[in-house]
From TrEMBL:
PANTHER family assigned: ATPASE SWSAP1, PTHR28653
One annotated GO molecular function: single-stranded DNA binding
Stated name of the protein: SWIM-type zinc finger 7 associated protein 1
GO biological process: double-strand break repair via homologous recombination
Native source species: Hucho hucho
Gene Ontology, cellular component aspect: Shu complex
Amino acid sequence: MSDGPTKIKFSYPRSLEDLLQDVASLHESASGSAAPPSLIMVDGLEGYLRRPGVSGSLQQAQQSSAAHVSALLYDTAAFLTQTLEERAASLAPCRVIASFQSEWEGHAGGDSSDPVLSVLDRYFQVRCTLDRDWNSAPSVLLPCSVVFSPL
């Protein structure tokens, strides 16, 4: 028997509200007979947090939304971990991976100045940062360095 994922479900929520509903529904699906997920991945979190025309006056709304979705992801992963342990389906915890592209990339202070990213850092244990090597020769594929840092 393999320790890898046996079932993958893709979901493409159209809005932050749909994303929140999809994540919240994982609590309900774990109550059924199917094995609960051991990994939750959210790609492009910035797309759910940024709305067209968002400026400094709505920055607080972005931070609040980031805290809301992060807390729900954290709570859901904890719940699913408990469910996995109770069913002896897995000794490994449910993990969350979320990608977020900072608007502040390339600005003075870099990603560390992004107020939304600072909110996300409070909920996630590790940050993986991809840094492009802008000094290399121009090409379609730029070399990147990958940095994992505990928060």
